[in-house]
Amino acid sequence: MSIYQGKVLLIVNVASKCGFTETNYTQLTELYRKYKDQDFEILAFPCNQFLYQEPGTSQEAHEFACERFKAEYPVFQKVRVNGQNAAPIYKFLKASKPTFLGSRIKWNFTKFLVGKDGLVIDRYGTMVTPLSIEKDIKKALEDA
Hints:
By secondary structure, this protein is of the alpha+beta class. 31% of the residues lie in helices and 16% in strands. It has a 4-stranded mixed sheet with strand order 2-1-3-4. The longest helix has 15 residues, at 21-35. It is globular and about 40 Å long.
């Protein structure tokens, strides 16, 4: 992850068969195209923990994002975001920004905004669309 040092990151657990897929992927691609030349990166992590809504392989999840939504940002291997076998990055993110209901990720498309200093700025639930946090992304890009 050191290749992302000094960048603002939006880290998202994604799924291809979710009711929130269309809006989130479309807006993530829009944000990426707008800010990719300003030390901004989106890191997408496919996850099948929520009603098995990412049933395919990691490669299929990557192809889905890149072909259907023209994603140019990294789509990583499938991960677990909750439980004992959660990916280390998600253990860190959740510990940094728990919600009033605890640290568990509740659903697909939970987003974490990470500043250039590597600290988690904020956590956004599924219902928060990527474009609605654009002002926070701009502020994070200006800070440093």
